Amino acid sequence: AGIGSAVTWMHGDCTALPLRDASVDVVICDLPFGKMHGSVEGNVVLYPKMLDEAARVVKPGGRAVLLTSDDNQTVMHEQ
């Protein structure tokens, strides 16, 4: 049994995950950088919602891996 049997990949709205509270070990999210999709200004609204949702579904001691660009560093630091 490789890692594939222990991993479930999902694709969906990062602000409304169809998961129970404290139900996952890791959340990985490739956030919009605000260049090809969305905007840096829009990320000011999106990022806090996504962080709240990740905190809701990740088990205590779990982890979140979030990809973004340097353009959004102030949005992330405000959280």
Mean residue pLDDT: 79
The number of E-state strands comes to 2
Spans of at least 5 consecutive residues with low confidence: none
Order of helices and strands: EHEH
**Widest β-sheet, arrangement of strands:** 1-2
Residues in β-strands, percent: 15-25%
Per DSSP, the total helix count is 2
The Cα radius of gyration reads: 13 Å
Summarize this structure briefly:
The chain has 79 residues and is an alpha+beta fold. The chain has helices spanning 40-57, 73-77, and strands at residues 24-30, 58-67. The model has no long low-confidence stretch (mean pLDDT 79).
Describe the secondary structure blueprint for this structure.
Layout: E1 24-30, H1 40-57, E2 58-67, H2 73-77
3D architecture notes:
- It is built from two helices and two strands, in the order E-H-E-H.
- The protein has 79 residues and is of the alpha+beta class.
- It has a two-stranded parallel sheet with strand order 1-2.
- The longest helix is centred in the middle third of the chain and has 18 residues, at 40-57.
- Helices cover 29% and strands 22% of the residues.
- The protein starts with 23 loop residues before the first strand and ends with a helix.
- The mean pLDDT is 79.
